[in-house]
Design goal:
- One of its GO terms (molecular function) is beta-amylase activity.
- By secondary structure, this protein is α/β, with parallel strands linked by helices.
- The chain has a single domain, classed as TIM Barrel, CATH 3.20.20.80.
- It is built from 13 helices and 16 strands.
- It has an 8-stranded parallel β-barrel with strand order 5-6-7-10-11-12-13-14, surrounded by 5 helices. Strands 1-16-4-15 form a 4-stranded mixed sheet, with helices on one face.
Amino acid sequence: MEVSLSVPKVVAAKLEGSTVKRLGFSAPIRVACRVNWVGLKAIRAEIAVEKNREAFRKEMVQTRMPVELFVGLPLDTVSMTETINNEKAISAGLRALKLLGVHGVELPVFWAVAQPNSPDEFNWSASLAVADMVRCAGLRLRVSLNLNGCNRLNVPLPGWVLRAAEADPDILFRVQSGALHKDCLSFAVDELSVLQGRKPIDVFESLFGSFQSAFKDYFGSTITEITVSLGPNGELRYPSFPPASDSDEFTGVGEFQCHDKYTLAQLKRAAESAGNPLWGLAAPHDAPKYNESPNNSNFFKDHGGSWETPYGNFFLSWYSQQLLNHGDHLLSIASNVFGDLPVQLSAKVPLLHQWHEMRSRPAELTAGFFNAGGGDGYDAVAELFAKYDCMMVIPGMDKSGSNPEFLLQQIKQACEKHGVQVSGENSTLAKKGTDNVRKIKENAQEGLKGFTYQRMGADFFSPEHWPLFREFVSGMERRQPDADDLPDGNGGRLSLSAGLESGNNRKMQAA
């Protein structure tokens, strides 16, 4: 028997005059698996693996509990019009992942999709349909509640929020040149009534409460983790990258973000309380621009830079504390809403390894982590996460350059100190001839609770990538099939001997 799934090419959708980019399945997809029918006791998965698989698996068993492996669904799985993009392709993909031994998938849900028209109107229909697909596939579900826009997809903030920003642009972060970051609200307005007379934290609490009510039948059984967005790209950080830039590609030092009137008012009050009102007039005047070298101006110089002066210490301490306050606001309401549910609360912290070898750590400072001069900018973050029993998700565990492993180790040590669980993500799909799979495996051996491989789509199932992913899965400790795994209806079970056929003959077939 042969089953072939073909998905037509996707045409960019138009919504209210803006183009919504599509990052999912953009070409015909055919998933190939060789399936054998076997008895309950004889079931096992046979996957092509690298020569050192068994040695690696034995080491994992001896030293750590198995890492829970998830795969991210396409960013545009749920469209702006509340439909499921490429539903048949995703359904086939879920089945393939289940057969391969993956534990679950991650579903990104954007604020503009869930609460598009007003603070009183919520729409979860397509997300509920995806949750049902995942449940039927026998997989777990991690839901990412993104309280931000997405530059890659041209997904904005909700229209009613953008209308509030038109009336008062300073509810958004404003860069020194005057441009606005339109993908997240300024942290300084968390507790101000700037959204149709409501505070953002109250709006978010209502959003979380609506999600809890809508998905009550899925918690614990299907939905096992909820990731709450704490800033741009879903991460706890300032939008220190240029507006509309891709955070995975930007490698500059970034800029401090305190130019909107609400953040400047907070800085002014802090400077006056410190007895130096002149320190509260603006961001550091001697800091470089986004893509300039940290040595182009005085602030970040390793020796004698302004960051080491009393003023620098004041500003960086205040700046990082505002980030922590924002994280506290959101994790507090998330914990209040989700704390009694049988799910894990989690949030992302970025791996800002560029320029990490400098004493001043400029990319980390502009993002809000005071991790310079011998200080530990992640200790207070880990303490905050521990306060709310929140797992820390660290993206970019496949990155290279600037020794990211040293920063990763520092973050892990802070989490271990405070008893915070850690999970990871990659930033790009594995590619032949690179060592990103090896890096992920190495990082996973050192205390990760879970790992989410980003992300499903046309390239994910391509003959260039799929074998690499199978190899990656084989190198991770996987669960054994459960008693309810994909019954065949005849007292048998499905066992996977997976492979993608070359050329144009990629098909799902039964042996």
